[in-house]
Amino acid sequence: MILIAAIMAASVPSTAMTLKPFRSAAACVIRKDRIGAADLAFTAPGSPDEASAAANLKALANCSNGLAPSRVADGVALQLYSELVVSRTQTPFSREAEAAIANSAVGQSEHATSEAAALNCLAALRPEAADTFIKATPDTRAERESLTTLLATVPQCVPAGARAAWSPADFRMGLARSMYRAAPVRDLVHKGY
Questions:
Q1: Which of 47, 62, 99, 119 is most enclosed, with most CB atoms within 10 A?
Q2: For residue 69, what are the domain limits?
Q3: DSSP class of residue 2?
Q4: Are residues 95 and 160 in the same domain?
Q5: Are residues 68 and 93 in the same domain?
Q6: Could you tell me the pTM of the whole model?
Q7: How far from the centroid of its chain's Cα atoms is residue 138's Cα?
Q8: What is the signed CA dihedral for 183, 189, 192, 193, rounded to 10 degrees?
Q9: Beta strands 164-165; 2-3: pairing state
């Protein structure tokens, strides 16, 4: 069962307000340890590597505002991706190539939840729409149009019988983390950008 209605439902407070604590925690961690923050955001959500990176990131304790390390990592990915990636483009895939990419992305991590695996798949199949969605101001036409493209692709990215559900903020931040991990953002941070 795929639950995508949660993404499309109007949210009160708005997504912009919902993202505020995540953006604040991410900005604090990035300001105090940019490389450590970049490394945390690069780990797979829920993985032992994420737990290890979080344990080694001293700034996390003072900046997290009670948010789970994985949530702060999502916020860091959203901020660094938006800051360092100009745009993502894609070459259209054949149906066979899309199916292979979807199967690969969905099966790529034993630690990934159905939601995380689906977001990785969306990032691989629709990088332009994902890029536009991540960078769009919440509640705008650009956000809605890119979301429509992404939602049309969700069924390809969720295995039969699996369940995936997101709040609007979770969808944006999780997709940002998937895009961050697919782009050379971490390398740019390590090079001083």
A1: 119
A2: 16-84
A3: E
A4: yes
A5: no
A6: 0.78
A7: 15
A8: 60
A9: parallel
* Beta bridge partners of residue 177, listed in sequence order: none
pLDDT tens digits, 25-84: 999 999 999 999 999 999 999 899 999 999 999 999 999 989 999 999 999 999 999 888
The pLDDT assigned to 108 comes to 57
Flag whether 125 is in a domain: yes
CA distances to 34, 71, 94, 111 from 46, in Å: 21, 10, 32, 6
3-state secondary structure 16-60: HHHHHHHHHHHHHHHHHCHHHHHHHHHCCCCCHHHHHHHHHCCHH
Tell which of 45, 60, 84 closes a domain.
84
Which DSSP symbol is given to 135? H
pLDDT at residue 101 above 90? Answer: no
119 in the same domain as 78: no
Same domain, 96 and 79: no
- Unique residue bearing structure tokens 């953006």: 23
Mean pLDDT of 98-115: 65
Q: How far apart are CA 120 and CA 175, in angstroms?
A: 7
